[in-house]
Amino acid sequence: MAFLWTTVHVNNLEESIKFYEKYVGLRVSRRFESRPGVEIAFLGDGETELELIGGGGDYPESDQISLGFSVDSLDKKLDEMNQGGIEIYKGPIQPNPHIKFFYVKDPNGISVQFAEQIK
Fold first, then answer.
1. Count of domains for the chain
2. Distance separating alpha carbons of residues 86 and 104, to the nearest angstrom
3. What's CA 93's distance to the chain center, in Å?
4. pLDDT exceeds cutoff 70 at 107
C-alpha cells in the first residue's frame, strides 16, 4: 500500500497554488475541473502529492492538520518567509539536537511546517 496524497479544500485555488509553488517548491503536476465550479490541482513530483480542491464553499481554518516539508537550511527558509511577508505562526522550535522547525499558515489557515533535520 502506498500513501498517495493529502487533500486540502481551499478558498482560493490560485492563491494556494502560488503559496505552495513559491514557498514549498511544489509544482502543479495536473489540474482539471471535476464538476462545474470545482477545480482540482495536484502538486508534487514524488510518490506523495498535495491535492488542492477549489470551489464549493468557504472552509474554516484548521489546526487539526499540518503539512511538513524538509528544508536544507531553516535559517534560509525563515529569511524567505520574512522577505515574502509570510508571518511565522509558531517557532522556531528545536525540541532536540536532531531537528528544528517552524510553522506558517497557508492562505487557507492550514499549518505548514518547515523542518531541518540535523545530523
1. 1
2. 7
3. 18
4. yes
